[in-house]
C-alpha cells in the first residue's frame, strides 16, 4: 500500500515505446515507497489542459514524466500545427499546470534540435539549430517548459529502440529476408535502448525525491557512435548469432541524397552524456540491449 507521503510518479504517454519501458522498468526496480500511475492519450491527452488539470488534482503526483510526443518526423512537415500542439503547446500547458501545483516535470526531447554540423558530440549547452518541423517543435517545447516551470529536467535522447512499438530494429528484422537492403551510411548518432532511458528517468525521479537534483538540460543516449548502416549491420549480425536469421542480407551503404526524405535529418547527432554521471547514470549499452531484446521481439 503506497502512502500519500511517498513518491508518486505520473507518466503521460504510457503506450509509446518509452512509456511502456518506464512501466516495465518500474515494476522491476521500484522500491516500496514509490508509486507509478500512467495514462495514454485517450486518458490524459497533453493537448487537453482540462484533462491534465483533472489528472494532477486527482493523483497529486510528486513528479510528472512526459513520455508523449508527436514523433512522425516526415509527416510533421505537412502537419506542423499538429506537431506543434503536442510537442510545444501541450508541453507548455503541462508545465504551467505542474508549476501551479509545485510539481517538477521531466520532459524527453531529441537530438533533432541540433543541425548536425558538429564534429564532436553535442553537449547540453551547445547551440541548437533544428532543421525540421519536428526538431523545431521539440525545441519550442523545451524552451516553453524552461520558461513556465523552473523545476524541470529536459532529457534529450536519440535513435530510440526497444521490444515495444515501431522502431528501426523491428523494421530491419522485418526486412531480414531480403537479399539486399540499402541503408543510409552518412548520418551518425548513438542508438538508445528505451529500457535504459526509462531507468535513467526513474533514477532522476529518485534524485528529485531526495532533493539531490540540479534542474536543467541533460543528454542520454547510447555509448557507441554508429551510422544507420552500421546499426543495421549490428542488428543482422546479432540476429544471426542468435539463430533468428539464417543468412544476413547484404547491407548496401548509401548517402542521404540517395534516400531523400521530407524532413532534413542531422548528419551527426551524437550526444555527450557526461552530465548524468552526477547521478550514477551511464550511457546505454545498446549492443548489449540488442542481444537481450531480440529474443523478445522474435
Automatic annotation (TrEMBL):
One of its GO terms (molecular function) is dTDP-4-dehydrorhamnose reductase activity. Binds 1 Mg(2+) ion per monomer. Pathway: Carbohydrate biosynthesis; dTDP-L-rhamnose biosynthesis. Keywords: NADP, Oxidoreductase. It catalyses: dTDP-beta-L-rhamnose + NADP(+) = dTDP-4-dehydro-beta-L-rhamnose + NADPH + H(+). Residues 7-296 form the RmlD-like substrate binding domain. Its cofactor is Mg(2+). Its EC number is 1.1.1.133. It comes from the Bacteria. It is an enzyme of class 1 (oxidoreductase). InterPro entries: dTDP_dehydrorham_reduct (IPR005913), NAD(P)-bd_dom_sf (IPR036291), RmlD-like-bd (IPR029903). It holds the Pfam family RmlD_sub_bind. Catalyzes the reduction of dTDP-6-deoxy-L-lyxo-4-hexulose to yield dTDP-L-rhamnose. Belongs to the dTDP-4-dehydrorhamnose reductase family. NCBIfam families: rmlD (TIGR01214). This is dTDP-4-dehydrorhamnose reductase. The gene is rfbD.
